[in-house]
Structure formats: C-alpha cells, structure tokens
Amino acid sequence: MRDFLKKNGPWSQLVEKENIFLIDLSPDEKLSLTPRISVVPFRVPHRDEYSDTLGFIFFGSRRSLLYLPDIQSWEEWDRSIREEVEKVDVALLDGTFYGPDELPGRDLSRIGHPFIQKSMDLLETVTKKGKTTIYFTHFNHSNFALDPEGKALINVMDRGFFLAADGLEIAL
User: Fold this and answer.
1) pLDDT tens for each residue of 59-80
2) What CATH superfamily classification does 33-163 receive?
3) Closest by alpha carbon to 58, among 31, 19, 35?
4) 27: pLDDT strictly greater than 90
C-alpha cells in the first residue's frame, strides 16, 4: 500500500507535499502514536485483492478500544470475536448489514460482513457483563438499523448495543 500511495496520483501528491506521512505497520506489533496512545494492528479476512485488511486495538492511559470495521465473517477469522471484545473497554465492529433481508435478490454471503443480528447473538453476554461497550459502524445505506424509528434500531438498543455516529468521541 505504501508503494501504491507513493507512485499513484492523486495520493502521491499528498505524500510529496507532506500532507500525509506514511508509517509502516507490522501486524501484531505495538506502535506508539503518542506518549499516551499506542496501537496494535492485526490482519482480518476480507477482500484483500488490493491491500491487507486490518483491525486495530488502541491503548490509552485508562482504556482500550478495538476497531474492526471490515471483516468477511467472524467464522473466517483465526480469533474468537467474543474473546477479543472481552479484552477491551470499547469495541467498534463491522455493522455493514443488519440482516440477510437487506438487499433482496443479492447473495450477501458473497459480499461478506457479519450481520448485526448475528454479532449481537454472539456478543450479548459480553454487553450484559457491563465491561465492554459495543458500537456498530461501517453501515451500508440499506442497513435497517439506520431507520431512527425502525424496529431494528430498537432491537440494537434494547440488547445493549449502540450505533456509532458522526462526532462520536471515545476517551482512552
């Protein structure tokens, strides 16, 4: 990805003009971003035809956050999503689709992304323990949970989960 950004416009211009600085990441190796914030990138399975797909765990002075907005499925990952979520204080997870009925006529298994419904089934015991707050993010425009008066959003909230929204700030 680094070479692609450096050699292909318009991104190469951002590098040349020092509007962005490229930092090499190594999976599963902690990188200090500031004296109080560090991050550990890790690989996840999802459409890697152009670049790796990564998730991140951020560590602050008081809290930790799992950021996993894009994954093929929980089953294809070599880690347990439940165990990974239980390790952190906050998790932002792939919420692309609410359920299988979202795009009639399309085979969502070929598109990838775990359904919010399935993620809630897997992780509801974690939210009930009260240690980890779970937000869904990376929504497709068809996502039923985005209807502010819909049953899907009520279901998400009633089960102890949240939807990430513009302006969300999470102190670490």
Assistant:
1) 999 999 999 999 999 999 999 9
2) Ribonuclease Z/Hydroxyacylglutathione hydrolase-like (3.60.15.10)
3) 31
4) yes
Domain boundaries, the chain: 1-25, 33-163
What's 48's DSSP letter?
A: -
59 - beta bridge partners?
38, 64
Amino acid at 148: P
Beta bridge partners of 67: 56, 92
DSSP category for residue 146: G
> How many Cα atoms within 13 Å fall on the side-chain side of residue 30?
9
Peptide bond into 10 cis (omega under 30): yes
Rounded Cα distance between 97 and 94, Å, is: 8
Instruction: Report how far residue 23's alpha carbon sits from residue 12's, in angstroms, rounded to the nearest whole number.
Output: 15
